[in-house]
Amino acid sequence: MRVLSILILFISTNIFAQTAPKPYGAVPSKRQLAWHNVEVYGLIHFTPTTFENKEWGFGDADPKTFNPTDFNAEQIIGAAKAGGLKGIILVAKHHDGFALWPTKTTEYNITKSPFRNGKGDLVKEVEQAVRKNGLKFGIYCSPWDRNNPLYGTDKYLAIYQAQLKELYSNYGELFMSWHDGANGGDGYYGGAREKRSIDNTTYYDWNNTWGITRKMQPMANIFSDIGLDVRWVGSEDGTAAETSWATFTPLPPEGKNVAVPGQANYPQSPMGIRNGKFWMPAECDVPLRKGWFYHENEKPRSPEELFDLYLQSVGHGAALDLGLAPDTRGQLHSDDVAALKGFGDIVKHTFANNLAKNGKIKASNSRGKNFSINTILDGDKETYWATADKIHTANLEIDLGAAKTFDIISLQEYIPLGQRIEEFNVEVFENNAWKKVYSGESIGAKRLIMLDKPITAQKLRLNISKSPVCITLSEFGVYKKTL
Ligand code: FUL
To answer: For the chain, is the Cβ count within 10 Å smaller at the N or the C terminus?
Structure first.
């Protein structure tokens, strides 16, 4: 009898040890998980507006103005790759309405320009360079079209949808379909040169328009002020809030009753909404220079500034979308190439060496052998440590084996099971005493904590002090910023 009960206990403990925690709240889809892996990507603006030295083309530039002297997709994508970017979104059509591919939907397109003697397809050239370099490809096709004579009428939506269909059909699998919220206003509109207003709550019929995206490009993450997959962070500064939840509920702004691109609860966008209805992490878009288009008098941000943006975007569970602006040659300026390389090198060198990798780690609780605490040092975010169902707080102690100097701590939750941790702090053992160096709330896909100054210590403690359910953590790292 006793042997039997021991056996039952043994079997049940082991079965329990194999069972993963139940997911908590909204969880990411397969396409969102793939997006989280990209972390840093680029957004290329290059249209007749570049040659006009403007930010928003009016839609009246002669197609012949689009005449790069030496367009080189390989040069642009090579520089992006050296910067550590893992994806590229090309603005296939900006507000000026000029289509960079040989579309059947409008005469205002690349075949009417001198580019490749009217036989070119710039979307294809960029797509091919992107794929050759192992990056992911996405597109931005502006709904607002300041050239199209039919913009503002009930005939335009079919044109916009047909443009999306062409882009979704001919350029392989897309990781993002990017939709900005700027729509309606003055423009050329086939020569009318007037102001056209639309009702942005109905005009683009987003339900059906995004239905096309879902059907034709199921892995494309839809980006806009209201998601559906990735939300705009609410500014073009390149940063998410320090506490930033991946969950969000798009809501109408005060005084409005519908949430659509161009009309959303922006004050909540930088931090997200704890227990929001949807998994909808933030994208932080910011141009490498001051403007989205190339202007000779502007300079790119420095590698250190870019690294700081990286810490405040990727390091806050969001993504960094860096605007790249080819010049009138059709290449990135050498200053931009150098800035990207410098930034990529800082990220590469800093995160090459996890100082905790060979450390010893103890946890106050572990769920069982498949969820061992050692998994958080294995460099594989698919394996994770978890606590037992009833355990909602925990302390981890990490011994680095010797005193080491560091200034960045990296934490990652196992997000396929949702964002669970609500409060944590980090302590270091310095001068024979534990000293708190950081307290925070959200972790999510990645949390990078930049300490005020480098610390030299052998032992650290991570205290997870609040979670509504049992805890998961997939990775833990200690790093020293390295130029
Ligand atoms: C905004 C646009 O109005 C800007 O011109 C730029 O394309 C930026 C990325 O999105 O909504």
So the answer is: N
